Amino acid sequence: MTLKAIMLGAAAGITVFATTNVVADTSDKRIALSNNYAGNSWRQAMLESWQKVGEAAVADGKVASADAFTTSENQATEQAAQIQNMILQGYDAIVINAASPTAINGAVKAACDAGITVVSFDGIVQEPCAWRIAVDFQQMGREQVKYLAERYPEGGNLLEIRGLAGVFVDDEISAGIHDEVKNSNFEIVGSVHGDWAQDVAQKAVAGILPSLPEIVGVVTQGGDGYGAAQAIGATDRAMPTIVMGNRQDELQWWSDEKAANGYETTSLSIAPGVSTLAFWVAQQVLDGNEVPKDLTVPFLAISQDELEDALKTTPKGSVANVEYSLEDAKAVIASSK
Amino acid sequence: MTNNASEPMTAATPVRALLSKPWIWAFLAAAITFGATSLIAGSGAGSLFYAALTFASFSAIVGIGQMLVITLGPGNVDLSIPASMTLAATLALKFMDSETAMILPGLLVAIGVGIGCGVINFGLILLLRIPPIIATLSASFLYQSLAIWSNRGLRIKPPEPLAEFATGGALGIPNIAVVGILLAILAWVVLERAIAGRWISAIGQNLRAARLSGVPVNAVRFGVYVNSAVCAALAGFLLASFSGGANLNMGTEYMLMSIAVVVIGGSSIGGGNSNVPGIWGAALFMFLIVSMLNSYGLGAGIRLILTGVVIVGVVALASRKGYDV
């Protein structure tokens, strides 16, 4: 009954809009980004993409404004307060990269109750009234092992670099890796936490390397591949196949090695531009389109042949990125229906 | 190992004299973890030792700065170390822009940033009368934001010769470790042989008594806070040169690390008593314990629990011995 009522309401809304505003139904809508953290290059690229696409959308008259706000402390309470402020400021949609999947549910519910469209991405929220653009982290782990299995059908030893201990994302990627390793001839002989940071990974790998047998591959979580390469390069070991995570320094290192000795690997991660996908999804919801509540973020994978092109378009020291267009968003929505 | 071994010892009972040093426990712990890891590493023990010296250097350099601050007495701690590291490294690497000719000016930029951070920290403490914990923590937001604003998190590679120096070594000793050991010796000389060191300890033991006996309290505190920020800046500069660029979150783990090496090293957390050799023992131990638990393949949960238990144990032993003296 309620769903039907909502649909009828939406249909009525569309009709009203369609008759009163023929150019764009969302030109007077204001969208805000609530971001919990800005302290790494991925998040910085994410904010830049948002700004770029948001400004273009405002200039084109697609939306009235697209403002970005970041909390300073990466705290759920602070983000909840920020969302409350956005409700008071009368935004029509709030796009969230959340500090916690549960702790800001109250604020999200309050926003929904105030008639605001809430779209969460990357760090998603569990509150059912919000849309979720989630990353399939387990799949991210599986893809890496699948690639290595193609390269080394006979198997071998793997080193696993994990993220930050106790964080959901780390558990998920690792679960995917271990799950897929069971279907292969590989054995994970060592596992360290690199905290998704290059220097931490370098330190952890340097510490465990002396006690490891020969390894053929390194599975990673992103942001740690270059550190692993540095640590292994400092020893007299043969360089294993390190799966990269789209960072420019990783791609640069890969490209140098490729030129020097034909080094082969793959690289995959989530493009920071996923914020722009969330932006267009919010715009589509405001536009009155039917959008499934759960969407999946596509991976940005870079293969051996695509390396040079990807490296050219990635700013020095940043991370490979794509900005999503309205059409991309529509395609993602259509594929989830 | 790497301590400078210049502590005077009683000739009659050298072993007892050695055991009465609070810093010996950090070195013992480091040696035991090294031995345990070597059981697995086998012939890799040499490279493990080399890696330990390398990574312990960064902790030791920030630890020396933090130790002098903590020596000033209760409530004195520098929580802006991670942000100072990040800011100094970010600005210096951006300034050098991978140019070899700019290495020395780049180092000066890093040290200048360190001095600036130290002056701001102490300015907040002295002029606005903000407690050091809050002053340094709030100032660190400023530094971190400046670092984000100045370069948006982009990693700029260090100049080639600088990267080679930072990752290289001679005679089985990493260059970085040489820098760290020289700084430790310098800190030891200042603390044990110079009047400034006596002043620092005097302030930590009794601020009022120190002031009444004519110690220039604020000048000494100023110097100590600036020194801490400069050590952090130098560590940030070296770390960025070592790992191929500055990262916005590169300093994060050095917040707790800087305090941990001070406490495990046998310095009194209440101030007034500092211990330079212990910094190096503790820094080696902090790297080796993680390597050991990783090598034995223990999960992150057990790893963290064991790290905590061992740290508590070493601190308990070190402080018990400390009171005996």
From N to C, what is the helix and strand string of chain B?
HHHHHHHEEHHHHHHH
Which radius of gyration of chain B do the C-alpha atoms yield?
A: 19 Å
Amount of helix of chain B: over 70%
Uncertain runs of chain A: 13-23
Q: What is the CATH level 1 assignment of the largest domain in chain A? A: Alpha Beta
Could you explain how this protein is built, in words?
The complex is a heterodimer of chains A (337) and B (325). Residues 13-23 of chain A have low confidence and may be disordered. Chain A is built from twelve helices and twelve strands. Chain A has two domains: 2-135 and 271-298 and 321-336, Response regulator (Rossmann fold), CATH 3.40.50; 137-269, Response regulator (Rossmann fold), CATH 3.40.50.2300. Chain A is α/β, with parallel strands linked by helices. Helix content of chain A is 46%, strand content 16%. In chain A, α3 (76-88) runs parallel beside α4 and α9 (248-261) packs antiparallel against α11 (307-313). By secondary structure, chain B is mainly α. A two-stranded antiparallel sheet of chain B has the order 1-2. In chain B, α3 packs parallel to α8 (175-193), α4 packs parallel to α6 and α8 (175-193) crosses α9 (195-205). The longest helix of chain B is centred in the first third of the chain and has 27 residues, at 45-71. In chain B, β1 (169-170) and β2 form a beta hairpin. Chain B is 74% helix and 1% strand. Chain B has 14 helices and two strands, in the order αααααααββααααααα. Chain B has a single domain (19-324), classed as ABC transporter involved in vitamin B12 uptake, BtuC. The interface between A and B is large, with 41 and 44 residues.
